[in-house]
Amino acid sequence: MKKDSSKKIQDRVEELLSLMGSKAKVSVKEEEDVVNVDIETAEEAGLLIGRHGDTLNAVQTIIGMIYRQENGEWKRISVNVGDWREKQEEYLNEMAKVTAERAKQTGEPQNLYNLSPSQRRIIHIALSEDDEIETESLGEGEERYLVVKSKK
Q1: Distance (Å, whole) CA 152 – CA 147
Q2: CATH number of the domain at 87-150, out of 3.30.565.10, 2.40.160.10, 3.30.1370.50, 3.30.428.10?
């Protein structure tokens, strides 16, 4: 991706935030497989993140669609406000550890509901190196959930 493409993304995000009535600052950093869009704001962080990251994910989807439309190709876009995504990942990694320990101790499968596909993926990855645990996603659509179970 060229420098002008990063500037285009920044302009589009700023335009979208302006339409939302936000005065947040935007910075765009391109890496190999992802374009990271960081939004800096003190007062509007909660509003831009939304419930469980819903607003943040919606902005990310919109920017991804705009990028696809303007460039004719898909590129993974990650939109973050403050360090919300990092905190979310820490929280999910901790949840994965606790759930795995419970599965080992009880021998019972542990079901985790109400997770987004990206949240399920983080937990799958967090537990992938534990030889005593296996994870599996079951169900369809909104009913999809994650099962953490002991291999013993």
Answers
A1: 15
A2: 3.30.1370.50
Strands of the sheet with 145-150, listed across from one edge: 110-112, 145-150, 133-138
pLDDT of 46-61, one tens digit each?
999 998 899 999 999 9
**Closest CA relative to residue 30, chosen from 76, 81, 74:** 76
Q: Is residue 42 within 8 Å of 56, Cβ to Cβ?
A: no
| pTM beyond 0.90 | no
For residue 149, which of 96, 98, 108, 93 has the smallest C-alpha distance? Answer: 108
Tokens standing for residue 136: 């599996």
What one-letter code names the amino acid at 75? K
Say if domain 3-82 classifies as CATH 3.30.300.20: yes
